[in-house]
C-alpha cells in the first residue's frame, strides 16, 4: 500500500510540474498552449532539441527553476522505483499472485487463523506432517514472512466472511483459530461454521469456563493451553519416560507420529478383515487402535475385525509412512 501511495504521489507531482511549466511559458512568453507544453516536455526530458522560440530573460530564469524542480521530482521517482525493486517489489507481487493461485486450487486443506505463540507450533506441526495449509494473519509482516517460505498466507481478519472465503473455507477440511483473545476466537468459530457446516473447527481458549459456549457456537473442540500445560507437567512428574517418548515424536522432524487413517467410501478394503489388509503391514506403520464409526476405540484390534466405511485406524509411523497407507487404503 505504501508503494502504491508513493507511486500516485510521483505521478501527481509530474503532472503538476508539467502544468506549471506549460502555464509559465504561456504567461511569460505568450506562446500557444501546445508550444508551451512541448517546451516543458523537452526541457524536463533534457533531450536537447533547443528552444521552441527564442526565450526572454524572464523565460530563461523560469526555465532554470523548471529544470531544477523537474529533475528533483524525476530523481525522487527513480529512487523510489529503485528502492521498490531492491525491496523485492516485483518479486513480492509475483509471489502474492502465486499464493493466490495456490489458495484458489486448494481443497481439503487446513486454515490456520493467527500465527502467534500457539499458532506457530500448530503451523510447524501441520508442515511436518505434510498437511496442505492456508494461513490467515492480521500482521502484514508475518504474512510476508510466510509467503517468503512459500506458505500460502492471507492478510486480513479471520472473522470476516470475505477473508475466510478467500482462504477457501468452502473446500477446507478443517480450521484452527489461535487468536490471543477468547472473544475473537469465538467470532471466528461462529463465522466459519456458518460458511461451512461440515468443517472441523478447533479453537484455542484461555478461560476453561467458556468451553461449552465455544462448542455450542460450532467448535468441534476448544483447547485450553493452560489445561494442557498442567496435564503435561503432571505427566512429566509421574511418567517421565512415556512423556519423553511422546514428546520426541512431536519434536523430531524426521521422527514418528501418532496419526489416523480413515476408511472412505471408495476404499477397496471395506468388509476385509484386518489380518487380510497387507497394505497396513507393508506400509511400515504400527496399528495401535481402531475407532468404529459412531463407536468407541478398540485398543490393539484383533485380526478378525472387519473394516467398515467410516472406521479410523490409529497408527504410529513417520509422516511418509502414514501418507503412503492413507493413499492405499
Description of the structure:
By secondary structure, this protein is an alpha/beta fold. About 55% of the residues lie in helices and about 15% in strands. The strands form two sheets. It has a six-stranded parallel sheet, sandwiched between helices. A four-stranded antiparallel sheet has the order 7-10-8-9. Helix 9 links the parallel strand 5 and strand 6 (about 220-225). Helix 1 (about 1-30) crosses helix 2 and helix 10 crosses helix 11. The protein is elongated, with a radius of gyration of 32 Å.
Keywords summarizing the entry:
Rossmann fold; Helix Hairpins; elongated; 4-stranded antiparallel sheet; 329 residues; 13 helices; alpha/beta
Q: Using the coordinates shown, work out and report the CATH topology of the largest domain.
A: Rossmann fold
* Overall number of strands: 10
- The CATH superfamily of the largest domain is NAD(P)-binding Rossmann-like Domain
Roughly how many Å is the radius of gyration? 32 Å
What is the 3D form? elongated
Order of H and E elements: HHHHEHEHEHEHEHEHHEHEEEH
Distance between the termini: 48 Å
CATH class of the largest domain, named: Alpha Beta
The CATH architecture of the largest domain can be named as 3-Layer(aba) Sandwich
Q: Percent of residues in helical segments? A: 40-55%
- Give the averaged pLDDT, no decimals: 85
The SS-based structural class is: alpha/beta
Percent of residues in beta strands? 5-15%
How many distinct domains? 3
What strand order characterises the main sheet? 3-2-1-4-5-6
Q: Stretches where pLDDT falls below 50 for ≥5 residues?
A: none
